[in-house]
Amino acid sequence: MTGHHLTADLSGCPVTVAAMTDSQALRQLCIEAVRAAGLTPVGELFHVFPPPGGVTGVVLLAESHLAVHTWPERGAVTLDAYVCNLGTDNSAAAQGLVDQLIAAFAPKHVQRQRWLRGVAFVPRGSHAAP
């Protein structure tokens, strides 16, 4: 099973973006971005921290997960999206999801990282080479 793991560290995000401090706004943004990317949300949890009120949100996907963390006092956001490719190549969906979230936070600077994760499928009873 293989998958694509994308992260983005955003800085210079305007604190006026509602999703920086409002858990419902972040939830709506994430769910809409997940669906627009063609991925399937199956669970979620969003939490607001005490002032200055950053938000952490996680959306469990049928394909894996999305996590978003905001730091309004620093104008920063971190994004983490992992999608599995079992049966379908979801790499374009993951990229579209991250791109949409980056655009919504309007950062001045973005640092992206991408990893191909997992191993090729090995049938039960077989052994992969070391």
What is the CATH homology-level superfamily? S-adenosylmethionine decarboxylase
Q: What is the CATH architecture descriptor?
A: 4-Layer Sandwich
Spans of at least 5 consecutive residues whose pLDDT stays below 50 are none
Question: How do the strands of the widest beta sheet line up side by side?
Answer: 2-3-4-5-1-6
User: Helicity, in percent?
Assistant: 10-25%
Largest sheet: 6 strands, antiparallel
CATH level 3 topology: S-adenosylmethionine decarboxylase
Mean pLDDT: 92
Total of DSSP H or I helical runs spanning 4+ residues: 2
Structurally, the number of domains stands at 1
Order of helices and strands: EHEEEEHE
Task: Tell me the span between the first and last alpha carbons.
Answer: 17 Å
Structural class: alpha+beta
Give the topology, please.
Elements: E1 2-11, H1 23-36, E2 41-48, E3 55-61, E4 64-71, E5 76-84, H2 91-105, E6 109-118
Antiparallel strand pairs: 1-5, 1-6, 2-3, 3-4, 4-5
Helix pairs in contact: 1-2
